[in-house]
Specification:
Elements: H1 3-9, H2 11-22, H3 25-41, H4 52-71, H5 80-83, H6 92-107, H7 110-121, H8 126-133, H9 137-154
Helix pairs in contact: 2-3, 2-4, 3-4, 7-9, 8-9
Length: 170
């Protein structure tokens, strides 16, 4: 019996153990697939003095541990000075206004929405957005202007100011 035949014989047992570890059928199948890929790719490292079953389950367990490690949120410690004030939850009115602006942005033409998101959301300057989109800065500036005007109209702030879209660099 070849090594590949022995590996194939242990697939049902690997699936059973992977399911017990992951408690999720799809995750277990992915784990077994990953284990088998690793075993086949590194079969030249297998020493004939160990049982294939033990070797496979060691690979399975190590892959499972890697899945656990990669799925844990990474904590970052920050100095207290960097934290600043605790953000306050917005009012219901501000949530509704945000939803209104979000919907209005979705109704903008694609070219206006793209430049507005780069400038207003990502904080790029007109020149940076122009380089990112491979457009002349004048085109970007006019599209941002048209997008802002359209948003003011759609959200009922056509008087020339829009408190919901502030802090952009033009």
């Amino acid at each position: 019996m070849t090594l590949l035949d022995e590996i194939e014989a242990f697939i049902p047992a690997l699936r059973r153990d992977a399911h017990a570890l992951m408690r999720d059928r799809d995750g277990a199948e992915d784990l077994v697939q990953d284990c088998l890929e690793r075993a086949v790719a590194r079969r030249h490292l297998w020493c004939g003095d160990r049982e294939v079953r033990i070797w496979l389950f060691r690979i399975l367990l190590n892959r499972f541990r890697n899945v656990l490690r990669s799925s844990r949120p990474r904590l970052q410690l920050l100095p207290l000075e960097a934290v600043g004030a605790t953000p306050q939850s917005g009012s219901q009115e501000s949530h509704l206004a945000l939803r209104e602006v979000h919907a209005a942005i979705g109704r903008l033409p694609d070219d206006q929405r793209a430049v507005l998101l780069l400038v207003a959301v990502e904080g790029m300057s007109i020149d940076e957005a122009a380089r990112a989109l491979a457009l002349p800065p004048g085109t970007v500036a006019s599209r941002v202007g048209r997008a802002r005007a359209a948003l003011r109209t759609m959200t009922g702030h056509a008087e020339g100011r829009s408190p919901r879209i502030q802090g952009t660099r033009t």
